[in-house]
C-alpha cells in the first residue's frame, strides 16, 4: 500500500466519516457528557482491531484507541464536545433545531471524526506492511472547558508519543505555526454576614462589595501586566434580593498570557487583590482553580510536513451549491465582521475576499500569538506537536457562532473534514515511512524550544475536573 492508496481508502470511506460527523452534529453533547460520541468513535475503532482504553484519567468520556506495535508512536488528538445554546439548523438564518439546546458551534463533530478516520486509514497501511509502528487516536472530552487533555496529561498518557498531530475547524486551510495563550480559570469566593439591608446594614458584611472591589482592583492591575495578557470575569453569584446584605458572592476569572509562568504570576497578584477586598469588607476570601492550560509550543518541522501534505492535496473543492450557501451565511455577519474575524487569524487580503477557501495558504505566523487558549497546549509541551485548520466554515465565520454550527453540519464542513482526515493520514504516513529522519528533527526542535523548563501540570494536586457551562 502506497501513500496514495491511504488517501484513496479515505475517499472510499468518506461516507462513514460523514455519517459519524452528522450523527454527532445531530446529537450535540456538552463537555463531559459526550457519552454517545465517545462510544460511537471508540466502537468503530475497536471493531477495526484497535485496542481501546476507556475512562482515561477517570474521565468517563476520554479514551485512547491504539493499533500496531513498537516505535514510532504517533498520536492524533480528537475532540467531540458541543457548546451550550448554539443549536442551529443547516440554514443561513438563525434558526435553532431546539431553542436553548447545545450545538456544534466549534465544529468538534468534525474535529474528532477526521482524526478517527486518519487513524483507520493508517491502520490499513500498517496491515498491508507498508509502514510499521503504533498509531493512537485520543478521544479528548471537554475541550471547551479545558477539562480533558490537561487531566490526561497529568496521568502521563501522552508521554511516550514520538509526535502528535491535530487540527481545528475554521475558515482557512493553513498550518498553525502560532502559539496560543496559557490560561487559568479561577473562581474567587467571598463570605460575609447577611443583614437586613435597610434596618441593620451596620450588622452586615457584604460579600458582593468584596467582589466589586476585587473587580475594581483587577481593572487597575490590567495596566501592569504583559501587553498580550488578558483578564476577564463574570459575577457568578451577586447575592439574592437587594434588601439583604449578600453573605456570599463570587466572581469567575480567566487569566490568559503568552507564557504559563506569566499566568501564574498574574494569578498570584490577583489573589492579593482578593485578600485586599476581603480586608476592606471584613469578609473571607477563598479561590478555586477550575482549570488551567499551557500556551502552545509550535513545531516547525512537523508544521512544514503538514503544509507539504496540505499543498499536495490542494485543499477541499466545494460544489456551486456549497459556495452559494456560504455566500448566504456570510450575509448574516457582513463584510466588516468578516474582515475583523479573519485578521485575528492573520489571513491575507485575498482570502478575506473569498466566500470559501478552496486552496492552501502558507502563512508565516510563527511569532504570532492567537488570542485564545486550548488544552492542546499541554500536549505540545510534552511531545512535538503540530496543528492546522481546514475551511469547514465560510470565510469570516466566528467560532462559537450559530453560523459555525450551521456550516459544521453542512456539505462544507464534511468536505473540509475529509481534507483534514487526508492531511492527518498523509502526514502520519510520511512520519512512519521515512526511517525516522523527520521525527528526529522534530524532536531536536522540541528539545531546543522547550528548554529545561519542562512541563508541570497547571492543576493543583488532587484537582478533579469541574463541570462548567
Ligand atoms: Zn474548538
Q: How does this structure look, described?
A:
Helix 1 (3-12) packs antiparallel against helix 14 (411-433) and helix 8 packs across helix 14. A hairpin with an 8-residue loop joins strand 1 and strand 2 (63-68). This protein folds into two domains: 3-180 and 295-450, Aminopeptidase; 182-293, Alpha-Beta Plaits. The strands form three sheets. Strands 1-2-4-3-5-13-6 form a seven-stranded mixed sheet. A four-stranded antiparallel sheet has the order 9-10-8-11. The chain has 15 helices and 13 strands. It has helices at 3-12, 14-26, 35-47, 108-127, 149-154, 207-221, 260-281, 300-313, 320-331, 334-344, 349-352, 376-380, 402-408, 411-433, 437-450; strands at residues 51-54, 63-68, 73-79, 134-140, 163-170, 174-176, 179-180, 182-191, 230-237, 248-257, 284-293, 369-370, 385-391. It is of the alpha/beta class and 469 residues long. Bound molecules: zinc ion. Zinc ion is lined by residues 106, 108, 143, 168.
**Helix run count:** 15
Bound compounds, each kind once, are: zinc ion
Task: Specify Rg, calculated over alpha carbons.
Answer: 23 Å
| CATH fold naming of the largest domain | Aminopeptidase
Strand content: 15-25%
In total, the number of domains comes to 2
**Average of the residue pLDDT scores:** 96
Question: What is the correct CATH architecture of the largest domain?
Answer: 3-Layer(aba) Sandwich
Q: Which strands sit side by side, in order, in the main sheet?
A: 1-2-4-3-5-13-6
Largest sheet: 7 strands, mixed
Derived from helix and strand composition plus strand pairing, the structural class reads: alpha/beta
| Uncertain residue segments | none
| Helical content class | 40-55%
**CATH class categorisation of the largest domain:** Alpha Beta
Overall form: globular
